[in-house]
Each structure stands twice: as structure tokens, then as C-alpha cells.
Specification:
heterodimer; A: alpha/beta; five-stranded mixed β-sheet; 5 helices; 5 strands; B: alpha+beta; Heat Shock Protein 90; five-stranded antiparallel β-sheet; 30% strand
Chain lengths: 140, 129
């Protein structure tokens, strides 16, 4: 069974779909992403589809739903690396991806998020626990 | 004609891979390959979701100077009572978005759909390179 890794990078989750996405794998990925958002308190998810040579209406719907669900959890989703042929095919079919932000590649996606992450205060996302140290300093 | 049985979602992947491969062999462009593979993905899913299983037959065809790929989808399901309604955007008999059939039709050059009163559905598509 193939699984798609969801990697944590600071406040961001990275997902790169490198395998043939059949329907139940797409649904499984949606579950995994939402679970990981809850578990890691992620602020954003980058989904890389550079390797996908086909995105049909079902996969498009799952990606769009995932973005909307993540949005409800106050987490942004950016879809990166969509191939030109895939883009043209989706538009031909009359599909759009409501609720999904996109970027041309992983780097632009990170930049897009980084720009907005400037606005996140440190106490909203704390990896280390500096409170004890600060308390110690205050006493000395 | 070559044949792919379609009984589950894994067969949907097999069907679209087969379509992509034959289109590659016939020298289709990336754009055209993507369109035919996506149309096949939609129609193969329709076979197992709505039709409860069936098969796809496919082959390369030649007409005058044109080269194309022809795919025929057959299922043994209840068929479609009103094809005109089923081909409308957004119409779905189950919980999908209803982009499948109308979407697939826009991606190919020829699209022929027949439903028997007794059940079963046959869809034939052609994509020229």
C-alpha cells in the first residue's frame, strides 16, 4: 500500500504527491492532512502536485474540499506545481478549485506563506518554551 | 481492440494509464495525452461507480491522415433514464459534483452515449492527435 508522507516544517506541513493517486488514497490523504493539522497546530499546508500528470474531477474535488476543511481549522492550503496541461484540462472541463490558493512551485508557495506568516505572533506558534528561562532571568 | 476490466478504483488507474500509453505510442502531444487520460479517468470511474463494473476497449485508429485513440466504455448498470439531463453540468445521481460526463465530453473530439431501456450504458469516445 502506498502512503503519502505529510512532513512538518515549522508551522507548515509539506505534502508532495509522488504516486498514482487512486480515489481511496486521495480520501486517505485528506484524512491524514486534517489529522496532522490538529496534531501539529500547523498554520499552513503546501501540497506539491508537480509529479501528477492527471487531475480529474474527483481528485480536484478532494483537493478543494481539503483546502476548505483546513480553512475551517484556520489553516491555509497552497497547491503548488500544477502542470500546464493539467491546468488546461481542468479549465476545459469547467472545473475550478474553490478555496484553494495556488503557486507556481514549492519555492513560490513558501514565499507566499512566509509573507503572510510574518503576521503571526510568536506566542501563537511556540516551538520552544522560553517562559521558564525568562522567569529565571527576572529573578536574578 | 485491447481491453481493461473495470471493477474498482485501481482499474480506473489502469484504464487511464493504458489510454496515456497508447496516446504516447501514437505521438500525441502532452496536452492531448492529458485530455484523453483525464476523460478516460472520468468515464472509467463512471463505469464502476454508476454502472457497478464493466470494461473499456481501446485502440489506435486511422482516418485519412488523422491518428486517434478510440475508447469504448460498457457497463452493466441500470443505464441512464434521461441522457440529456445526465450530460448537464452539475447533475449527479450520487454524491459527486457531476462534472464527470459533461467534463469528459469537452475533453474529446467525438462522444457517443447510448443507454438501453433494459439497462447498461455504452459510451464511445475518440480523441484525434
Amino acid at each position: 500500500m502506498n502512503t503519502i508522507p505529510v512532513l512538518k516544517l515549522g508551522p507548515i506541513l509539506l505534502v508532495s504527491i509522488q504516486t498514482e493517486l487512486h480515489d481511496s488514497l486521495a480520501i486517505e490523504l485528506q484524512d491524514t492532512i486534517l489529522y496532522k493539522i490538529r496534531q501539529t497546530n500547523a498554520k499552513a499546508v503546501l501540497i506539491d502536485i508537480t509529479a501528477m500528470d492527471i487531475v480529474d474531477s474527483f481528485i480536484a474535488r478532494i483537493l478543494s474540499e481539503t483546502a476548505q476543511m483546513a480553512g475551517v481549522m484556520d489553516t491555509q492550503v497552497v497547491l503548488v506545481g500544477m502542470r500546464p496541461a493539467v491546468t488546461m484540462t481542468l479549465v476545459d472541463m469547467g472545473m475550478s478549485l474553490p478555496g484553494v490558493q495556488t503557486a507556481i512551485d514549492m519555492e513560490s508557495g513558501l514565499f507566499k506563506l512566509g509573507y503572510e506568516l510574518h503576521n503571526i505572533r510568536h506566542d501563537q506558534y511556540t516551538r520552544h518554551e522560553p517562559a521558564l528561562m525568562e522567569q529565571g532571568n527576572a529573578e536574578s | 481492440m485491447q481491453k481493461v476490466e473495470i471493477r474498482n478504483e485501481h482499474d480506473v488507474v489502469l484504464a487511464r494509464t493504458a489510454a496515456r500509453e497508447i496516446a504516447t505510442l501514437e505521438g500525441f502531444s502532452v496536452m492531448t495525452k492529458t485530455r484523453i487520460a483525464t476523460a478516460v479517468s472520468e468515464l472509467a470511474r463512471n463505469v464502476f461507480l454508476h454502472g457497478g463494473g464493466g470494461f473499456m476497449e481501446y485502440d489506435a485508429i486511422r482516418l485519412d491522415n488523422k491518428v486517434g485513440v478510440k475508447c469504448i466504455f460498457v457497463d452493466y448498470g441500470p443505464g441512464i433514464p434521461d441522457i440529456d439531463v445526465a450530460m448537464l453540468d452539475g447533475f449527479s445521481s450520487i454524491a459527486t459534483l457531476g462534472h464527470g460526463l459533461p467534463g469528459a465530453r469537452r475533453l474529446v473530439d467525438e462522444f457517443d452515449i447510448k443507454s438501453d431501456k433494459g439497462g447498461g450504458l455504452r459510451i464511445e469516445i475518440i480523441k484525434w492527435s
